[in-house]
Design goal:
By secondary structure, this protein is of the alpha+beta class. It contains twelve helices and ten strands. The radius of gyration is 43 Å and the shape is rod-shaped. It binds 3,4-dihydroxyphenylalanine (DAH).
Length: about 350
């Protein structure tokens, strides 16, 4: 028995040492220390020995088990270390490599211009007002002094929305409708701008889109004059196109203002001399005027006490001028090569 024991000790040590993987080590463990292994059989046979032999052999059995277990544990630790070392090696990250920078997008030129206009006016003390893009006939037309037979409200220009039970709904044709909503929602004084999308039945070409953007401005207070309008527009022109810009106002008709004006800005390219961008030195930029007393009255304001001015400017128009974009459709084509030329938020 002792011989077998020594043999098993030697065999076990060799087997553990020879195991190249944790799986092989486990197999070796079963073969050396498992229930059917000679060592275990021998252990079970101790009971048939007489007492002195049992003591002697038993002591040796215990010593051999301790040695085998120790040798097994040592080998297991070594193999486990090797496994971990391999894992570490495989997952290695070279911290000295330069990182891959995520590609930052750019803001759409219309967003840039809209934000800039908002910034100019919020600095002047205006607040931003909003209105729905689906409007009713009253807000979009009637309250703005556009009577039923006015050409601007025929099916030719407007996109009506077929919603059962709401025959009078249309996609707003101009942000001017927000003037009405603002005055209805608050008493004077009013100092607001209303940027937003507008819709017209229009075939797209180099200068037209059926969906485009405007910024509406509205001021109503006591003692507001035409000079306030001109001064405000001049401040905007200088902010958007440079300190040297001047504005000029010519007579124009818009049903909701009286008098109404067409506003030109001295050309930022040639400084008003005349060039390819402007032709005669002036760029017609927007419509404006003094709020019609009837419009004030339509909104419940007292036209004897309050006066105001309003203006509406196309965001696309400013973007085309500002960035020298030759065709308005480029703004909606979604061509990344075009869009990525514009900066990120300022
Ligand atoms: N709503 C006009 C348009 O879309 C622009 C406009 C003109 C707005 C004169 C105004 C204004 O507020 O006073 O053509």
């Amino acid at each position: 028995m002792l011989e077998t024991l020594e043999g098993e000790l030697a065999r076990g040590r060799a087997a553990f040492e020879a195991a190249a993987t944790l799986q092989e080590l486990e197999d070796a463990q079963v073969s050396v220390l498992g229930r059917k292994a000679p060592f275990s059989q021998l252990q079970r046979g101790l009971g048939s020995l007489d007492e002195s032999q049992r003591r002697e052999v038993g002591a040796r059995v215990n010593a051999v088990r301790t040695e085998l277990t120790a040798s097994l544990d040592t080998r297991r630790a070594t193999l486990q270390e090797a496994v971990e070392a391999t894992l570490l090696q495989e997952d290695r990250i070279d911290m000295t490599l330069p990182g891959r920078r995520p590609r930052a997008g750019s803001l759409h030129p219309l967003t840039l211009v809209e934000r800039e206009v908002i910034e100019v006016f919020t600095r002047l003390g205006f607040r931003v007002a909003e209105g729905p893009e689906i409007e009713d006939d009253w807000h979009n037309f009637q309250a703005l002094n556009i009577p039923t037979d006015h050409p601007a409200r025929t099916m030719k220009d407007s996109l009506f929305v077929a919603i059962p039970g709401h025959p009078e709904l249309l996609l707003r044709t101009e942000t001017s409708a927000v003037q009405i909503r603002t005055m209805q929602s608050q008493p004077p004084p009013v100092y607001v701008i209303a940027p937003g999308r507008v819709y017209r039945r229009e075939t797209a070409d180099a200068t037209h889109l059926a969906v485009f953007h405007q910024v509406e401005g509205l001021v109503v207070d006591e003692g507001i004059t035409f000079a306030d309008l001109k001064g405000t527009l001049e401040a905007m022109a200088k902010e958007l196109f440079g300190e040297r810009r001047r504005v000029r106002l010519g007579p124009a008709y818009f049903p909701f203002v009286e008098p109404g004006a067409e506003v030109g800005v001295s050309c930022f390219k040639c400084d008003g001399v005349g060039c390819r961008v402007c032709g005669n030195g002036w760029i017609e930029l927007l419509g404006a005027g003094m709020v019609h007393p009837q419009v004030l009255e339509n909104c419940g304001y007292d036209p004897e006490r309050y006066t105001g001015f309003a203006f509406g400017v196309g965001i696309e128009r400013i973007a085309l001028l500002r960035y020298a974009i030759p065709d308005i459709r480029m703004l909606v084509d979604g061509d990344v090569r075009f869009l990525e030329q514009f900066g990120t938020a300022s």
